[in-house]
Amino acid sequence: MENVLGYLKSRTPGWFVTLATLFLGLITLIIYTARGGNSYSPVSTTAVIIFVVAIITNALILIKDFKVGAYVPFIFYVVGLGVLLNTEMLFISNVLTGIDNNAFDPAYIAMFIFLILTIVCSFASTIMTIHKEEKAITVTAAN
Q1: Per-residue pLDDT tens digits for 59-99
Q2: In total, how many domains does the chain have?
Q3: Which value, in Å, is the radius of gyration of the alpha carbons in the chain?
Q4: What is the domain extent for residue 29?
Q5: Domain contains 139
Q6: Global pTM?
Q7: DSSP output for the chain
Q8: Is the CB of residue 93 less than 8 Å from the CB of residue 85?
Q9: Which residue, 91, 123, 130, 139, could crosslink 14 as a Cys pair with Cβ 3.0–4.6 Å?
Q10: Contacts 24+ apart (CB under 8 A), 111-118
Q11: 4 located within any domain
């Protein structure tokens, strides 16, 4: 237990924001796939693949800092939002115009809320320092 607490104490706030991004991305993916699609917008395989790649790169950044790599999950999450809006376009227009008395279900609303939170946290983690910089020890020779 002390090892776990010591490990967590050695992490930066940016690491925890990245961890929260990972969990928010997982929740978004689970809600999206569990909700399923409908006749207007089936579940997009492309969106699922994009979210899986974003989650994997997010996990890799928690293990090893790639400096510029922190932007990769953010880009994938934003592209995933674009793919979702593209695949859900017919359903959204159907609901907004009131055709067939369709409505946004709670899972649909939760999915988009979690996706927006994921994108915001992912952007915040790109700004923050994820791993502590290891200071190099310099040894000077005595004359």
Answers
A1: 998 888 777 777 899 999 999 999 999 988 888 888 888 88
A2: 1
A3: 20
A4: 11-127
A5: no
A6: 0.82
A7: -HHHHHHHHTS-HHHHHHHHHHHHHHHHHHHHHHH---SSSPPPHHHHHHHHHHHHHHHHHHHS--GGGGHHHHHHHHHHHHHHHHHTHHHHHHHHHTGGG----HHHHHHHHHHHHHHHHHHHHHHS--SPPPPPPP-----
A8: no
A9: 130
A10: 111/28, 111/31, 111/32, 111/35, 112/84, 114/24, 114/27, 114/28, 114/31, 115/28, 115/77, 115/80, 115/81, 115/84, 116/81, 117/24, 118/21, 118/24, 118/25, 118/28, 118/77
A11: no
pLDDT on residue 13: 84
- Residues of the chain scoring pLDDT < 50: 136
Name the token pair of 103.
């409505």
Which residues contact residue 131 at a Cβ distance below 8 angstroms, ignoring those fewer than 6 apart? 12, 15, 65
Check residue 21 and give its pLDDT.
93
